[in-house]
Amino acid sequence: MSYAFSRPTTSRRSGLLSIVIGLHVGVVLLALAAKTVAPQIMEMPLIVDLLPAPELEAPPEAKPLPMAKPEPVVRKPLPQPKAPTPVLETTASQAPAENAPLAPPPIAEPAPPAPAPTAPPLSQARFDADYLRNPSPPYPPLARRMGEEGKVVLRVSVTPQGTADEIEIRTSSGSTRLDESALKTVRNWRFIPAKRGDVAVQSFVLVPIIFKLEQ
To answer: What is the pLDDT of residues 99-118, one digit of tens each?
Structure first.
């Protein structure tokens, strides 16, 4: 079954056109009405109320700490020095007094050491005793002719028997001939030996010999 659409008539077209135009007019009117009805925003003056600033709380004041009261210093009285006890002189008594403390026994002091035995004095050896009869050294002829003079000092080691053990020249006369004459002569001399107490001991003695020409 087919349906055929019939062409609208002229009256129908004009009615539709009037409807469309009416719709447009209504829309325009609605737009105008909305524009007139829209509330106008009025600019109102801004009123600002100034509120007082809040009071700041002051920081708490630092309170001083309570000071501890110093304790009073109590000065103790210084001890008074005791008066010295007087010493009483009493006579010596063998029996102790009643209820008196016994005296300690005396401490024996060590005896002083015995003095060391002193050595007996030492007597020096001698060569000038007359009874020894020691001859003088001869004057060498050549030294006499050459006019040599001088003093010789000999160091002699004397034995306990009184003989010359060793001889050396301590001081020369400056002449070999004079020194040799003194050595040869003193080597045969006799001496009094040195003694320590009553004992003869070995010792040394200096023998001076002077060579001098007669004027």
So the answer is: 544 555 666 667 777 766 77
N residues, the chain: 215
Q: Residue 157, class by beta-carbon neighbours within 10 Å (0-12 exposed, 13-18 middle, 19+ buried)?
A: middle
Q: Which helix (H) or strand (E) holds 37?
A: helix 10-37
For residue range 23-67, list pLDDT tens digits in order. 878 777 776 765 554 444 455 555 545 555 556 566 566 565 656
- What single-letter DSSP state applies at residue 198? T
Q: What are phi and psi of 28, to 5 degrees?
A: -65, -40
Torsion 26-28-30-36 (CA) sign:
negative
Give me the domains of the chain, ranges plus CATH numbers: 122-211 (3.30.2420.10)
Whole-Å CA distances, 28 to 4, 18, 19:
38, 15, 14
Residue with tokens 């708490």: 60
